[in-house]
Amino acid sequence: MNRSDALVGASEPSDEAQQWLRAIPAAVYVTDAGWWLGEVRFVADAVADLGGRSATDYLDHPQRWLTAIGETSRLQALERLQAALDAGDTQVTLTYTLSHVDGSSSRIADTLNIQRDAEGQVVALVGVLERVATAGAGDAASRALLEHNPDLLLVLDADLACRAAAGAAARVLGASAEALVGRSLFELMAPEDAPRVQRALDEQAVTAGAVLLELRLRHRDGSYRWCEIHFAADCDAVCSVSPGWVAVARDITERRRQALQWDAYDATDELTSALNERAFLGLLRQAVAMGDVHGRLSLIVFEVDGFSDIVTRWGREGGDLVLACIGEMCRATLRERFSFGRLDARGFALLLSGKSLQETSAIAERLRARFGTTRVEFHGHWLAFSVSLGVAERRQGEPPERFLARAHSGLEVAMTHGGNRVQQAP
């Protein structure tokens, strides 16, 4: 009879089997099909080197081993074990983090040989426990490489709780690697980013794949830093629900800041400091999408009357001078908050929130009067001009393109009737 067969069906291993198991230079244990939740039949003395308690203690109180495993890792291990039992497997390796009595922790690889009877029913689990090297372990050269790594290296469970950290923790987050252990990345993450990150990781968990995400993490000084994080599934932690993750995080705050500054520059008309047409229409679409929740929106669309005549008389330089003062005059005249956009060569728009059609018309009238009394000095001459304005309040459910078109129709009516007037859209 094979020695391992002596374990099958026995309430505990025979004396011969126990002698054989003790002779193995590893932390070996034997349970029924319930693992540490069920009946524990044998625990080798070497287990004390991993968990900090004697073999007898674990034999009498098996829950002490189980509760030393973090809740997420414990559930993952139980689910993976159950999947292996249901699939008829003969071996499975569970990987989890075990907390020690002294407060430290270690990564454990728990390889289980699944013993079955002639009918295929599980009668015993023979486990071999080994400590897995974690980030930061190794010789002095390896530690030096980790310490000078420009990235933050993380080992995370399925809930993104940090199990090990190394590398540029202080540089990226202002904290030591040790201080990150036990904390969830979701706890450090900007609340707005968490749902997007969760969805992306859930999708990758199905195939145990990898994904590159940009998100904000809170620095020790209270600010948020943009990080580019490469999440790769930790294959040793894959279970029937979700894997753990190995993550590499890099601070890209400066890169993001430069990109945002360039985007803002690219979206702004240099002459008038107004949003260009593409940027303004994007803002309008976003405002309309939120308008159904947050209330009313209104538009003022306007043009300089007879602008082509100004250019003919004073040249392009004179025309540009008139256009350049448009934004300044809007800001000097209006007390209300507004978004300012340039729609074409001579057309402008103001987007306001919380204003009725009548209130917006009154604002437009203030602008018309201010433009009509303004004189712009140009090479010793004074340029006078007026504007025509169309006003519209968004209707319930009205798409942004239709909303803007109605405001334009008011402008067309104002210009048709001689200009220098405000016209409400039909």
Automatic annotation (TrEMBL):
Residue ranges of the TM segments: none
PROSITE patterns: GGDEF, PAC, PAS, PH_DOMAIN
UniProt domain GGDEF: residue ranges: 295-426
InterPro entries: Biofilm_reg_signaling, GGDEF_dom, Nucleotide_cyclase, PAC, PAS, PAS-assoc_C, PAS-like_dom_sf, PAS_4
Residues annotated as domain PAS: 138-209
PH domain mapped to chain residues: 1-29
Name of the featured protein: Diguanylate cyclase
UniProt organism field: Salinicola endophyticus
